[in-house]
Amino acid sequence: MTAIIEVQNLQMKYGKEEALKNVSFSIRKGEIFGFLGPSGSGKTTTIKIMTAQLTHTGGQVSVFGQPASEMNKGHNKSKFGILSDNSGLYQRLSIEENLLLYSQLYNLPKSTIEEALAFVNLQKDRKKKVNQLSKGMMQRVVLARTIMHKPPLLFLDEPTSALDPVNAQHIYNGLRKLNELGTTIFLTTHNMEEAELLCNRVAFLHKGEIREIDTPLALKKKYSDHSFTVELENGENHVVYNGEQGAVQLMEWMKAKRVSRMYSNEPTLGDIFVQITGSDL
Ligand SMILES: Nc1ncnc2c1ncn2[C@@H]1O[C@H](COP(=O)(O)OP(=O)(O)OP(=O)(O)O)[C@@H](O)[C@H]1O
């Protein structure tokens, strides 16, 4: 499959501070790629470099086969959408008026406004002025604007950080649909559940370095201790490991019909992050 983004040995220094150290990854067309890491690990810096808002101090970054610095050229701007907390919305205009202005800027049909409003579940609030919106509503308006011109590549910097679970689910469904239609998505998040639900592959960033990169399933297998928890009818919980000893014990309980529940102790992405870095998200 074609790589849409290629990052090799990326380094970024802000003065003496090294924000990114030899970061390498490649993103294929059609992937939802999760860039996960705690605050200050370098996620936003990476997005800014890939979208020509910042110039890196070392390594190579190409997007759509061109150096990332080309992404601020007019002919490239319609190829991607960026969602960040820097909203740039007209505060005194309504949601709908903001989207209308944006549609005119990109010469988009009016139908795209309806689609975008539905995408973020804001049809009923369309007449509200931006300066009267909650943080979560504002985030949804910016997301609506980001997806309106249907770019083949989306950079989403913590797209659901201010959303309640219902609206977050609505956005996940929308993003999955866009992805099914071919959109490649680069997503940063602190939310490990979001990453598990959405991403085909994830990278763990810690202090400017990639510590792991793989599918959520492969990472879970790699960091699993292959144990199961068995809950017995009398309420006792036992951890049983894969192997002969575990099998004999389990068989005894099963023969005696004592097993009430059994589940795998597979780690979550959050557990794996803690295991790798020794720190929490
Ligand atoms: N303009 C800047 N000047 C100096 N240092 C900066 C600048 N922008 C970011 N940094 C530093 O670079 C490091 C990475 O910051 P970055 O914003 O990329 O992290 P992040 O992972 O996106 O964090 P968050 O999740 O809080 O948004 C941090 O130590 C930050 O202080």
TrEMBL record:
The keyword Nucleotide-binding applies. Coiled coil: none annotated. Residues 5-232 form the ABC transporter domain. It comes from Solibacillus merdavium. Pfam families: ABC_tran (PF00005). InterPro entries: AAA+_ATPase (IPR003593), ABC_transporter-like_ATP-bd (IPR003439), ABC_transporter-like_CS (IPR017871), ABC_transporter_ATP-binding (IPR050763), P-loop_NTPase (IPR027417). The keyword Methyltransferase does not apply. GO terms for molecular function: ATP binding. Gene3D superfamilies: P-loop containing nucleotide triphosphate hydrolases (3.40.50.300). This is ABC transporter ATP-binding protein. Keywords: ATP-binding, Nucleotide-binding, Transport.
